[in-house]
Design brief:
It is a single chain. The protein is α/β, with parallel strands linked by helices. The chain folds into two domains: about 1-145 and about 175-200, Rossmann fold (3-Layer(aba) Sandwich); about 145-175 and about 205-245 and about 255-265, no CATH class. The protein has nine helices and 13 strands. The strands form four sheets. It has a seven-stranded parallel beta sheet, with helices on both faces. A two-stranded parallel ribbon has the order 5-12. Strands 7-9 form a two-stranded parallel sheet. Strand 3 (about 45-50), helix 2 and strand 4 (about 85-90) form a beta-alpha-beta unit. The longest helix is centred in the first third of the chain and has 19 residues, at about 60-80. The chain is globular, with a radius of gyration of 19 Å.
């Protein structure tokens, strides 16, 4: 298949492109920094839209979230559809639910709190409105994506993991190894699968366990109890529970979670 991936320099799109090439597909990463007008979409079977603005201060980039995550997405989709592209895969986010803690299940409302989450949900809805039999739209809502060399929140966990003693906190997280995401997207493309996917690794895991695998440091329950007393946002974000419930979680067994975290260690 001929596949275009947006986000030329993004961690996820480059990983996906390499995986798809290994599976025999013609996969090309493109940049949308200059818009979609010059894109050659002739004979393209599928577009995997990874490009987005994320991890930027909302007060400073307020207009950019809507412009890029929604506006640019729709510019691309509306150009792709008349060009004969049959499948549009949109990488959305767990942020569309707006929860910072707890279980996300089939009854959890879509109430994003951040501009990032709001712009992603807005794009999801608009994409579904232009879907038809000849233009399939697939929405993928990953949790925290991690892997060797990745940045963002997982990089922060790596830094905390270097502490000689870690807080032992038994929280519950859905996370997704980039290799498992690659596997899923390839399956979606090859099977031309539509609908919504809430993917995660094959098991839930605690933040403490992730950091222990990364560093080998020991964990202290006393330190965990002490850290848990603080209700700061950064503590809740790192050690709170946030996961997809069994009723909607799409668990991927391609690479076991413990092996995946081990493979994500820095050299």
């Amino acid at each position: 298949m001929n596949i275009i991936l947006t986000g030329k320099n993004s961690y996820i799109s480059n990983s996906l492109a390499n995986y798809l090439k290994q599976k025999g597909h013609n996969a090309t990463c493109v940049s949308l920094r200059k818009g979609v007008g010059n894109l050659n979409l002739k004979d393209v079977d599928a577009i995997i839209h990874c490009a987005a603005i994320v991890h930027k201060k909302e007060e400073k980039f307020k207009n950019e979230y809507d412009k890029i995550n929604y506006g640019l997405t729709m510019d691309l989709a509306k150009r792709a559809k008349p060009c004969g592209v049959k499948h549009f895969i949109f990488l959305s986010s767990m942020a569309v639910y707006g929860l910072e803690e707890g279980e996300i299940n089939k009854d959890t409302p879509l109430e994003p709190k951040t501009l990032y989450g709001k712009s992603k949900l807005k794009a999801e809805k608009a994409l579904k409105e232009i879907e038809d039999d000849k233009f399939k739209v697939t929405i993928v809502r990953p949790p925290l994506v991690y892997g060797k060399g990745c940045y963002g929140n997982f990089r922060s966990l790596r830094k905390i993991a270097k502490l000689p003693i870690l807080p032992e906190i038994k929280n519950k997280r859905s996370v997704l190894y980039v290799g498992n995401l690659d596997y899923l997207i390839c399956k979606i493309v090859e099977g031309r699968l539509g609908g919504y996917f809430m993917p995660m690794d094959n098991e839930y895991i605690s933040t403490t366990k992730i950091m222990q695998i990364l560093s080998g440091s020991r964990a202290s329950k006393k330190l965990g109890d002490f850290v848990s007393k603080f209700k700061f946002k950064v503590v809740k974000k790192a050690f709170g529970s946030l996961y997809y419930g069994e009723d909607i979680a799409y668990k991927i067994n391609e690479i076991d979670i413990y092996r995946a975290v081990e493979m994500s260690k820095e050299d």
